[in-house]
Amino acid sequence: NVVAVYSPADIRFSAIHFGVLMAGGIYTAINPNMDTEEVAQRLEETNAMIVFVAPMLLPRLLASIANSGLQIPASHIILTNGNKTSFSSIDSLDNTAFEPPSYLDVDLANRVAMIMYTSGTSGRPRGVMLTHRNIVAMYTLVGGYSARSQVIDKQPSVGSGKEQGRMLSALPLWQIYGHCVLCYQPLYTGDCAVLMPAFDAVEYLKVIEKYHITRLNATPSIFHTLFTKTVKSDNGKVAIKTDMSQQYDVRSVMAVGCGGAPLPPDRLQQCYEYFNHAPVVIGYGLTECCSVLAGGSWLKPAPGAIGIIYPNSIAKVVDQNGIETDDYGELCISGPHVMKGYLGAQTTEPISADGFLYTGDCARIVADGNVFLKGRMSDVFRTSHGIIYANDVENKLMQHPVVEDTAVVAYDTENGDVHLVAFVVLSSEGSAEQLCGVKDWIGQHIRGADISCRMIPAIPKSQSGKVLRHLLK
């Protein structure tokens, strides 16, 4: 059976997840922001037969079940907290005398353990089928990388001292990054997980100070909001810009992890300064590979790199003809962490016959093993003046003093060339009259490119911070 969780972020997600896996079921999580129609569609796609639901979302769930045509009886609807006479709850299950199986006698290598959905940056989110082997492989490869860092690079083990570390997450648990941070990372690090139901800049800082957080797992969008709404004060604390009397101590933070989307170089430098030069690790991963694939060194991050490919993985880069190259091309990954396939797919695409997942990401692997990303292959533009990467244009635009955020898309012109459009969010110091100056400025730095600029209130992004370019197009 597929067991779905339909709830805002809740510490109980971890117990539900491991309970479902131990019982031999398939776990999936539904975004609580989905409307009735979207929830009904997700229930149908996954064929969920049991649902854990937050009481506040129960009416919407019941309406979705009625619309979906699925037969989910009230006995298969379980509240994540509280009590209603018609439905059981986790608390009531806790009081049930039941001995779980000591061993799950199934083909764990190929048995689907969970269905997690992609962020949908290039279109509709797709269900990714991940096996028990995928989960164990991901957990051990992260442990292997950490061991390498500690033994070879002689780096300290975060949270391995006498005092237990405390990790803070405000990540969505229905996406693979947030799921792994809550369910798997604490098992390896031994950290105590502190979970926020949603991100709020002021509350985030309050929690860091109150619980003496030692490690953060966040996204570029979280850092962007922090740096926009707060400022570092002279006493080392962080103050709210609209009320400088509100100050919070973030000096307990010893390590910062960032994933879910690319982090521009200037934001990386801001992270160092904001958190008192605590090590910042940029992680790269895919839902199709059960989260993380590569990460930076804790102490010596290569400038511009996402880090090295984690152990137990095979990586190659191929050009547009499928031939391996030392230059930029499509990153392909093989290993025990690669998904079984997409839910409902009729083919094995994008997994090749020899087991390589074609990620769709444009990358280069240099001699020392560091991986450099240029974004999606669909964001590599072949113009009459040569190849232009959207990522390069965006990073350069972020250096302009009045640009707060930006995203670049392209379309084909009538003469067969490519025209680039940079959507720009101006800072509070910027004005519409300065947009022409921004266009001229970027034209001087990205020579030969046909680029226009358009002002926009905000760049559409997924909850993990990835740009939803298909909406801009």
What features would you describe in this structure?
The structure is a single chain. The chain is of the alpha/beta class and 473 residues long. The protein is 26% helix and 29% strand. It is built from 13 helices and 27 strands. It has helices at residues 12-22, 36-46, 58-68, 90-94, 132-151, 176-183, 185-189, 201-211, 220-229, 265-274, 390-397, 435-445, 469-472, and strands spanning 2-6, 26-30, 48-53, 77-79, 88-89, 112-117, 127-131, 166-169, 192-195, 215-218, 230-232, 238-240, 243-248, 255-258, 280-286, 291-295, 307-309, 314-318, 329-334, 341-342, 357-365, 370-376, 380-383, 386-389, 403-412, 418-426, 451-455. The strands form five sheets. The protein has an eleven-stranded mixed beta sheet with strand order 9-8-10-14-15-16-17-22-21-19-18, with helices on both faces. Strand 1, helix 1 and strand 2 form a beta-alpha-beta unit. The model has no long low-confidence stretch (mean pLDDT 87).
Attribute tags:
alpha/beta, Rossmann fold, GMP Synthetase, Chain A, domain 3, 11-stranded mixed β-sheet, 29% strand
In short:
The chain has 473 residues and is α/β, with parallel strands linked by helices. The protein has helices spanning 12-22, 36-46, 58-68, 90-94, 132-151, 176-183, 185-189, 201-211, 220-229, 265-274, 390-397, 435-445, 469-472, and strands spanning 2-6, 26-30, 48-53, 77-79, 88-89, 112-117, 127-131, 166-169, 192-195, 215-218, 230-232, 238-240, 243-248, 255-258, 280-286, 291-295, 307-309, 314-318, 329-334, 341-342, 357-365, 370-376, 380-383, 386-389, 403-412, 418-426, 451-455.
